[in-house]
Design brief:
The complex is a heterodimer of chains A (134) and B (131). Chain A starts with a helix and ends with a helix. Chain A is 76% helix and 0% strand. Chain A contains 8 helices and no strands. Classes of the chains: A mainly alpha (134), B alpha/beta (131). Chains A and B meet through helix 1 and helix 2 of A and strand 6 of B.
């Protein structure tokens, strides 16, 4: 066994000793992945797994480095890129991926990607044209 | 400042190009001749072609400490870097059939699944999937 494997096993035993907690956060993350377009909140997520809100918040942050809300926003932004690429309008995309206001969608999108949704879309289209011409 | 590139030290750039494109599936992006037969050689992921580039650099051939460091990591089984995949098990199956040697078979650690293979150019590389 290599040095790396020995170290991994040692660290694993220390930081991932509670298998039940791991299953809880993996379950919650996968629920968010599959339901990111619906109205999700911490109450609902904690009821799903029979844990307290604050416990879930702490656990999720500990294992994924993000709060469930931050994770959900990242997921929706990723999905919105796919919709914008296939030509869906900014407003339609906003509601399709689960955001409730175009204003907050646009500002979150810009904060995460550096571009507004419409700038992003224009760029994707011009790239498509370039590719088809070359 | 933006992250646009990560570099991987390789002993033989041509061999590395073959392994990273034909076996792993990366695409060649830039290939520019430098002095002494060295090349500025970069690759991208097919599904993220405007994403960060992978630089296959011949550092170990020209700078002894780089070679020593690379050898020590290889010997200890420590990955030089890691790539994200959709499914570690599927990628393990695919690469094993192509003759790639794994020092760590697909394993779980907390919310991660990972495996480690030898890139035949002097490095261990990890593939991982967040669960």
């Amino acid at each position: 066994m290599t040095f790396y494997e020995k170290e991994i096993i040692r660290i694993n035993g220390i930081i991932y000793s509670n298998q039940e907690q791991i299953e809880t956060v993996i379950g919650v993350r996968s629920y968010i992945d599959n339901n990111s377009d619906t109205d999700l909140n911490l109450d609902l997520l904690s009821h799903l797994r029979f844990v307290s809100k604050f416990h879930l918040l702490r656990l999720f942050k500990k294992h994924y480095g993000l709060t469930p809300r931050q994770y959900l926003i990242d997921k929706r932004i990723e999905k919105s890129k796919e919709q914008l690429r296939i030509g869906m309008s900014v407003t339609e995309t906003c509601f399709a991926v689960g955001f409730e206001s175009v204003g907050s969608f646009s500002s979150l999108f810009k904060a995460k990607t550096g571009k507004s949704p419409s700038e992003f879309q224009k760029e994707q289209f011009s790239r498509c044209i370039l590719n088809s011409e070359s | 400042m933006k992250v646009t590139m990560i570099s991987i030290p390789v002993r033989d750039q041509e061999k590395a190009l073959k392994f990273y494109t034909e076996i792993l599936g990366f695409l060649k992006k830039k290939d520019k001749p430098l002095e002494g037969g060295n090349r500025w050689l970069t690759l991208v992921s097919p599904e993220w072609q405007d994403g960060p580039e992978l630089l296959l650099e011949p550092a170990p051939n020209h700078f002894e400490p780089s070679k020593v460091f690379q050898d020590a990591l290889l010997e200890a089984g420590i990955p030089w870097t890691q790539f994200s995949v959709e499914n570690v098990d599927a990628e393990y199956e695919r690469l094993t059939k192509l003759g790639v040697e794994f020092s760590v078979k697909p394993s779980k650690m907390g919310t991660w699944k990972y495996a480690v293979f030898n890139d035949t150019c002097g490095n261990n590389i990890e593939i991982d999937e967040e669960l």
